[in-house]
Design a protein that fits this description.
Elements lengths: L6 E5 L4 E5 L11 H23 L4 H18 L6 H5 L10 H20 L7 H11 L38 H13 L7 H15 L6 H15 L11 H6 L1 H14 L2 H37 L5 H12 L4 E3 H8 L3 H13 L4 E2 L8 E3 L1 H5 L3
Antiparallel strand pairs: 1-2, 3-5, 4-5
Helix pairs in contact: 1-11, 2-4, 2-8, 4-5, 4-8, 6-7, 7-8, 7-11, 10-11, 13-14
Length: 374
Amino acid sequence: MNTFIAGTYKQQLKYKSFLPSKINRDFDFDDKELSLLLEKASVSLGQMDAFSVLVPSIELFIEMHILKEAALSSKIEGTQTTLEDAAKPEEIIAPEQKDDWAEVQNYTRALNFAIERLETFPISMRLIKETHAILLSGVRGSKKYPGEIRISQNWIGGASLQDAAFIPPHPDDLPDLLSDLELFWHNGKLQIPLLFKIAIFHYQIETIHPFCDGNGRIGRLMIPLMLISQKILSKPSLYISDFFEKNRASYYEGLAMVKNSNNLSDWIKFFLSGIIATADIGVETLKNIVLYKKGIDEKLLSMGAKAKSANILLSEMFKTPIISVKRAADILKCSYGRAARLIEELTKRGITERIDDKVRNKYFKLSGYLDLFK
């Protein structure tokens, strides 16, 4: 680690771009604090994954984990969509919020696509580009070549290249850098702990900034994807963007510190601290979900013949916790009136809560369930 050089500045026509060093090489780690953090992070991830496997019907709850990751990763980039807003159907999103809402939905679709794609395709630049295309499709940035590696110079901060805070590598340098990044991930001969490898990969792809837009989101999206691909997680139940958003300044400072002072160790320590904090919160969330579900089941016992329909409806609401009465009628394959009466019964029992005052198509939420993820 003491010999690591993050990169050099390369003179272009009227500016200098940062050319990161290639990372497909061995790294020697002899920092005791790193070792202890690695051990703790591995234990925390193992506990969270083990608990998620034990949660009955875990598939019902995973969509909310993905939605939270999507909402928080997008928030880092400046979107103003709350988790509750992100869970709302499009028809009740205010016009001024639709762009932010759509970006969160795209992130959710992109992560779900990538997880499914992993079943037949490895992590690669091809997979990253396919996922990026979904991430930016039809939203702000859709005109910035979704799914295509940039062929122009971009920059971070400032109004132009002349006053930019950071200028990533020139487009001519991207093919070699991205090839090296892919080789690094698949190089089984490197003696690097997996969590270190993911931390280094994340730093490098953010530094390369391979796309015209959406680099932060695609880089964060890769973290749970890599954990799943290596069987560290069986489900995407880790939303590390929560930690990055709460510590946004430290997150950006940590990435910048590597470039400015070759300090890769402190970045990895910050990353591992995020894994630990997020996994510990994840365990508590899963425990609370189990208790919440148990409490609902007890409330349904006294509903008699309506309990079966209520269970069907609530199973859907664990995936999409805000629905309309019309949507409930579609789920239950019944009349609007019957669905309305069932939801009214659930509301009286403190399970659902009305969120608007529309006369005809009323909307309800699982408020207690949403609160578990706040």
